[in-house]
Amino acid sequence: MLGICRGRRKFLAASLTVLFVPAITWIYLFAGSFEDGKPVSLSPLESQPHSPRYTASSQRERESLEVRMREVEEENRVLRKQLSLAQSRSPSHHRGNHSKTYSMEEGTGDSESLRAGIVAGNSSECGQQPAVEKCETIHVAIVCAGYNASRDVVTLVKSVLFHRRNPLHFHLIADAIAKQILATLFQTWMVPAVRVDFYDADELKSEVSWIPNKHYSGIYGLMKLVLTKTLPSNLERVIVLDTDITFATDIAELWAVFHKFKGQQVLGLVENQSDWYLGNLWKNHRPWPALGRGYNTGVILLLLDKLRKMKWEQMWRLTAERELMSMLSTSLADQDIFNAVIKQNPFLVYQLPCFWNVQLSDHTRSEQCYRDVSDLKVIHWNSPKKLRVKNKHVEFFRNLYLTFLEYDGNLLRRELFGCPSEADVNSENLQKQLSELDEDDLCYEFRRERFTVHRTHLYFLHYEYEPASDNTDVTLVAQLSMDRLQMLEAICKHWEGPISLALYLSDAEAQQFLRYAQGSEVLMSRHNVGYHIVYKEGQFYPVNLLRNVAMKHISTPYMFLSDIDFLPMYGLYEYLRKSVIQLDLANTKKALIVPAFETLRYRLSFPKSKAELLSMLDMGTLFTFRYHVWTKGHAPTNFAKWRTATTPYRVEWEADFEPYVVVRKDCPEYDRRFVGFGWNKVAHIMELDAQEYEFTVLPNAYMIHMPHAPSFDITKFRSNKQYRICLKTLKEEFQQDMSRHYGFAALKYLTAENNS
């Protein structure tokens, strides 16, 4: 264990003193009672004045020794009392493997002793802090705004969950964007013994907007100042973290430090590890006032109840107003104001050992916080350079961060045994649905997939788009996995409108995608593409779940339901917007069909017009989609009529019809029972027909399927007989459900299937 254990040290010293001081004293007295090799009797009966050996000198020596003996005995009595008290207070005394406490390193509120022996303190082996109850809830507050910060929060939360042994309650002060992303993430993550509450950061802007701030965090970098007002009034203490924090230990160890606060200490902070507040970084550098090096606010322990009683709101506001008269603005956001308050009121702060906030900005003293990397507790990437910061051990820190970045978050759904979780309606419903399934059913895994909750991270990259004001805007909707990533740039070049994509990836693949996207000029130039990560779980590709996720998160009134391996014709976006008006899609139930073609060539000179496409059809460079393997899928489009059509024309539904369509955003979702390959689009088109959608073919629109290696799912379909049997069973059950839901009108689907 790390840290200097003062309590244990006193215990040991007391023990040694009680054992050895009496022994040494008696040896001294016994040795001093010999004269000329003969023992000198200390008995008063033998020490009469008439004894020839008795002298005035020996009398004084005897009296002196007796006084010293009484002093030593008194000291021993006091030490025994201290030893007894120390034993009774020892947290580990009489506790075995079922202890409800954690061993923690001893922190210190003494800044001088901390500065004198940081490394020695970190490497101490002893340590037992006051107890953290086994099921005690630890409260964590984080300010988060925007798309990038939301990604950072996920990595921070992973590092906390990985080490934790206690229930957690996250208090997230978030803007509308971060709330949407993180609320969906935690709802689909379903981690036991984790509660999340959100507080509207936008409502707090007026509390701090009067403070000019030059820091890159903007107005949200000031919101930690108002946590006493924002968080529930009955919340007594909270750990406040920046989003760029990585934990390397159980957060309960930090929570236990609250027990060490004394007197009026209400803030737990680590000393700033750069020279910023010393004012010597460059000529004319003038920082805000601070105590010595100042304190870093990336990790804060707040005693909220005491802060409220001290009128913290009034305290920091008065300090900020006074300092802004000369400083004009903050450079490090809330940190400047916290330090100015501490400068005036040093008794407020309890100084944490610096391994609780190892700051990896350039030119810091962070290396003095640890003798070995195993001493680390919390790593703080507080430089704008983040992972590119200069540090002697940055490679180790980077690897630790990347470990959590790519760690499978599904593995963190572990129960805390012995700690009852709050009742969760969604979780209970899920367990009930799963319990109703027959595990001996050969199609059990197919049925189970329908109820699997996949962890979902919406808007993984920055998204910024306002739909056109004329209510004609159309979003292209598609889904993909890692093996189709190369299609993204081509689609972005063909479709200039908004796109909503659901990507089925592992945590590690999500980071590969992020690096790929950030390295692509084409993708980075587009802010109207919403990337929604659905994390891998189970053995099937949940194609219809992915489509539903992409459909649900569009901001336009219409959507083009496509697939990732199709390239739309150039100009299709504008053509569809005009067609929406022409065919009055807003007031009618129509599904506009975009005819689908395919090429077997990986290098294709893409046709720029219908005339050019028809020429390529005649030459055999292009084909109608799947005409040679699955004619029924697109035959009702009537390609012969389309060749000469100049106006939209209506077609009727037929069995196994699966065209690509443009519909209103309120159209029904895809049926989740269909996973992998087979019937996933067919079932959706069938339901559109059951709801009396009119299928209309667009005469001057087209899309072309690009060749690729067969997917894993189609390979399973072709090679696995049980897969095909289960798919047939699911089709029959779907048709029966349609009959129950839509009545007599749905009987035609059963008839059509039997005749096909």
From TrEMBL:
Keyword Transmembrane assigned: yes
GO cellular component: a single term: Golgi membrane
Keyword Signal applies: no
Keywords of the record: Glycoprotein, Glycosyltransferase, Golgi apparatus, Membrane, Multifunctional enzyme, Signal-anchor, Transferase, Transmembrane, Transmembrane helix
Parts of the chain that traverse the membrane: 12-31
Location of the protein in the cell: Golgi apparatus membrane
Main location: Golgi
Alphabetized GO MF terms: glucuronosyltransferase activity; xylosyltransferase activity
Highest rank taxon of the organism: Eukaryota
Metabolic or biological pathway, per its Swiss-Prot or TrEMBL entry: Protein modification; protein glycosylation
Positions of region (Disordered): 42-69, 83-109
BP GO annotations: protein O-linked glycosylation via mannose
Extent of Polar residues compositional bias: 44-58
Reaction catalysed by this enzyme: 3-O-{beta-D-GlcA-(1->[3)-alpha-D-Xyl-(1->3)-beta-D-GlcA-(1->](n)-4)-beta-D-Xyl-(1->4)-Rib-ol-P-Rib-ol-P-3-beta-D-GalNAc-(1->3)-beta-D-GlcNAc-(1->4)-O-6-P-alpha-D-Man}-L-Thr-[protein] + UDP-alpha-D-xylose = 3-O-{(1->[3)-alpha-D-Xyl-(1->3)-beta-D-GlcA-(1->](n+1)-4)-beta-D-Xyl-(1->4)-Rib-ol-P-Rib-ol-P-3-beta-D-GalNAc-(1->3)-beta-D-GlcNAc-(1->4)-O-6-P-alpha-D-Man}-L-Thr-[protein] + UDP + H(+); 3-O-[beta-D-GlcA-(1->3)-beta-D-Xyl-(1->4)-Rib-ol-P-Rib-ol-P-3-beta-D-GalNAc-(1->3)-beta-D-GlcNAc-(1->4)-(O-6-P-alpha-D-Man)]-Thr-[protein] + UDP-alpha-D-xylose = 3-O-[alpha-D-Xyl-(1->3)-beta-D-GlcA-(1->4)-beta-D-Xyl-(1->4)-Rib-ol-P-Rib-ol-P-3-beta-D-GalNAc-(1->3)-beta-D-GlcNAc-(1->4)-(O-6-P-alpha-D-Man)]-Thr-[protein] + UDP + H(+); 3-O-{(1->[3)-alpha-D-Xyl-(1->3)-beta-D-GlcA-(1->](n)-4)-beta-D-Xyl-(1->4)-Rib-ol-P-Rib-ol-P-3-beta-D-GalNAc-(1->3)-beta-D-GlcNAc-(1->4)-O-6-P-alpha-D-Man}-L-Thr-[protein] + UDP-alpha-D-glucuronate = 3-O-{beta-D-GlcA-(1->[3)-alpha-D-Xyl-(1->3)-beta-D-GlcA-(1->](n)-4)-beta-D-Xyl-(1->4)-Rib-ol-P-Rib-ol-P-3-beta-D-GalNAc-(1->3)-beta-D-GlcNAc-(1->4)-O-6-P-alpha-D-Man}-L-Thr-[protein] + UDP + H(+)
Compositional bias (Basic and acidic residues): 59-69
UniProt membrane topology term: Single-pass type II membrane protein
CDD domains the record matches: GT8_LARGE_C (cd06431)
Family statement drawn from the similarity comment of this UniProt entry: In the C-terminal section; belongs to the glycosyltransferase 49 family. In the N-terminal section; belongs to the glycosyltransferase 8 family.
The protein's name: LARG1 glucuronyltransferase
Lineage: Eukaryota, Metazoa, Chordata, Craniata, Vertebrata
